[in-house]
């Protein structure tokens, strides 16, 4: 146990907490605006968010007192706890057709995958911080991916593609951080990109060219280089016939998972409404509470996934830019502390945290303006959502705790 | 613990920072493009081209009789809706509307609050508007911005059949109902959901899928046309369901049961199909569709004859002498029983310190099994049943499907009650009951309670020697497994010939059930149930064999009197309906 004084002596990045609080405040402001017309006068999204803010801050403060070695020591236990809790929802009745939510007898349900993704990231940090690992070899990469795919596959079956992606993503920068050869990381990604690119001839040609150059630049043995290149090309060519072998309903299911816009009554409608709301907001917005589009109630999840559309319409580009720059700044701070960390575990944990936050910021923001397919991922600190607010503040606590530069 | 040193190079750090700011810039750029560069376009779109999503209810599937004639149909009615965000002044407009359609503006605003879901979603104000009301509103359209009409399908009953207990009714989904449904997310406020009877049981087939249309509306909220960006979805009507009912037979029996209280069930033992089901008194099936006044409704609810009760699945009755076939089966199967052996009936029988009477107080004299069945002698069964025990009798009841739900396809079926030793111990204590209770059970009195649908299943099983499928109202495959009493073939022979004797014996209690139709053989049993609520209930159960087909019948006339004198003549009238046969092939 460390005492409070020793924390003060070191440089706790209070800026991180300040940014979190500012973003939460902006979120509350937007939630208050859309809660005005809410039917349930008591349990508005605004009220719920305030209720969840309290345990969030308590957990965040609690983490400041956690010994770092304890996080390291118990990380694997937490990893398995994470796997168990994402399994639990399968044993109860589905909510809204999915097994994402766990009913714990309270007026609200919790989303276990939110916590599991933090536990998974910490477990990976522990594995990669083992100093005996031979990072120049290929096997640690395989083990790392098994580690993240195990919980991610369960979450994918809930089904929750968004969270599953967020679980896997930290593996790439963390492997890069611990010294894995970038070429190996490229090899891991290549088959996925080959399959995705194979559905468009031009795209596939560009991809083949890119892949060829990378392989040449990496200078592998001639034979394995040729093997890699044609292996990927072959995979790409094969994926089309394989796709055609699927039954039409299986194709639709896959397509709506990757491109929900294919379901015109759901996502496409949301994107049109979201873009209209944002675009009509202009530079300064229409003013707080005056967003005509958002008050049409056309967006079913405007308080969580599409909160930026509300802000974009009512508070304008200025506020959006402020939020994005502030988020970028927050992530830069985390990166800096990760770079300055004395030990590898802290450094990896911080880059993992930064990745989770950045993925959420990017996927959520890009989705609201139709840059990427609609994925149900909230914006850190701003979106309404109990479990995710708690997770965001747990991450904040971890950032502050692991940014104190001394060795213990 | 944290031994491994951080090995991140400044090169890696710079690349990571670069990626972060690159992504942030992409996002900023995209927002800049939409909010600044394309602001004009989106701004005008938001002002003039709001897209309104309007859903249209799918008509529910129809309910047909076995020949495809429509029993339950849909009929379009007019509803008045408001789009809250387009109304200029709610209070004044509600007052105007209530003037034009002569209704209370308080009703309008209470409906408004009940159905409100959002500023720009049509909210129902009133329904069942007639042509005159609509034309009044049309004339004053200028004052009524944001007020629209819509047509929705409502249930309507075109045939002369009532059968309200069977069809059940639908309810409009409100917030509370939506929360209570397992698949509540499929319903919108104001949708119809099957609440009782077939409407509830077959909800997933009947409900259909709602259509969705997108309209562009201008700044005043007027619809400009369909939104071209989004494809509409037509409403997908629910699936029709074909019942096993025969429209004309049902109508005929309903007419016979007017001014009577009780149940008439006609079935087809070989298939388990129910050809007709009447629970009387009943009510008009459109009671729930909205034309009913408060007064009519409370009259029906407080009627002491309980017309809302579905008597054939939810009513439980003492079975009386119709259980004697069960007793016969118990005796023949469990004991070395000689059906030719006689007992003397003197009109009563003393057992221990209690006297058990026969219904015929002067006594039947010396009778064997067949005669005892034919004249329904109680004393014979008192004496014979002594050699058995209550659990043997219980097992036989259970094997004929009593004491549990039959699985018929309408909800909320009652289970009835068959006592066994455990039950008697629990209810009366170890020494609080004696073999006397068994004697009461032998003539179908005492604790016994059965539902008429269980009795129909019992008759079907007797008529098919134990192989009848579950009773059901809708043509379906994969019926649930019915109970299957396994009796010796000689036992079946004896029971069936005794049931025939009930009709043919010169003193047979069921002789009035035989119609004068050549070749039609009736098998049956009467019952006269004493009950604490008034006069005896009259039972007739049995079946007709005619032109190679069997038609089973269960009749119960509450407080009607004696089964032989009241129920059997009605049975004759119903059996006579089959004179010209019936085409039972499913269509």
Count of runs of 4 or more consecutive helical residues of chain B = 21
The overall average pLDDT of chain B, rounded, is: 88
How many strand elements of chain A?
Answer: 2
- Give the overall silhouette of chain A: globular
Can you give the mean pLDDT of chain A?
83
| Overall SS class of chain B | alpha+beta
Uncertain segments of chain A are: none
Helix count of chain A equals 17
Strand order of the largest sheet of chain A: 1-2
Helical content of chain B, roughly?
25-40%
Give the termini distance of chain B in whole angstroms: 79 Å
Gyration radius over CA of chain A: 22 Å
Q: Uncertain regions of chain B: pLDDT < 50 for 5+ in a row?
A: none
Range of strand content of chain A:
under 5%
Of all protein chain pairs, which has the greatest interface, and how many residues does each chain bring to it? A-B, 71 and 52 residues
Q: Specify the oligomeric state.
A: heterodimer
Strand content of chain B: 15-25%
Fold blueprint:
The complex is a heterodimer of chains A (408) and B (587).
Chain A: H1 4-9, H2 14-35, H3 45-64, H4 68-73, H5 75-87, E1 102-103, E2 109-110, H6 112-128, H7 139-156, H8 161-168, H9 171-177, H10 182-197, H11 201-218, H12 222-245, H13 248-258, H14 264-281, H15 307-340, H16 344-368, H17 386-402
Antiparallel strand pairs in A: 1-2
Helix pairs in contact in A: 2-3, 2-15, 2-17, 3-17, 5-6, 5-7, 6-7, 6-8, 6-16, 6-17, 7-8, 9-16, 10-11, 10-12, 11-12, 14-15, 15-16, 16-17
Chain B: H1 10-37, H2 39-48, E1 50-56, E2 63-64, E3 70-82, H3 90-100, H4 105-115, E4 123-129, H5 131-139, E5 147-156, H6 164-167, E6 170-172, H7 175-180, E7 192-194, H8 197-201, H9 203-206, E8 211-217, E9 223-226, E10 241-242, H10 247-257, E11 262-268, E12 273-280, H11 294-302, H12 311-314, H13 324-334, E13 343-345, E14 348-351, E15 354-357, E16 365-367, H14 369-375, H15 378-385, H16 390-399, H17 421-428, H18 436-442, H19 452-463, H20 489-504, E17 521-531, E18 534-546, E19 549-557, H21 563-576
Parallel strand pairs in B: 2-10
Antiparallel strand pairs in B: 1-8, 2-3, 3-4, 3-5, 6-7, 8-9, 11-12, 11-19, 13-16, 14-15, 17-18, 18-19
Helix pairs in contact in B: 3-4, 13-16, 13-20, 14-20, 15-18
